[in-house]
Hints:
- By secondary structure, the chain is mainly alpha-helical.
- It is 62% helix and 0% strand.
- It has helices at 11-33, 38-44, 51-54, 63-75.
- 11% of the residues are buried.
Amino acid sequence: xxxxxxxxxxxxxxxxxxxxxxxxxxxxxxxxxxxxxxxxxxxxxxxxxxxxxxxxxxxxxxxxxxxxxxxxxxxx
Length: 76
């Protein structure tokens, strides 16, 4: 797979990325069901296992923004 940005991806990379998104979604969804606020979810760091590979603290799309977008989407 040749993305618009970044390195060329193999099938395993796409599967790993899909699995990461699913796991993080499930974690955030469970926290929402437990009544956690956005601040509490961010503090819990639901992406912690993947931050080394995908995490960013600067730039146009950060890990914090990803968690917030997922939270807001699942909260609806």
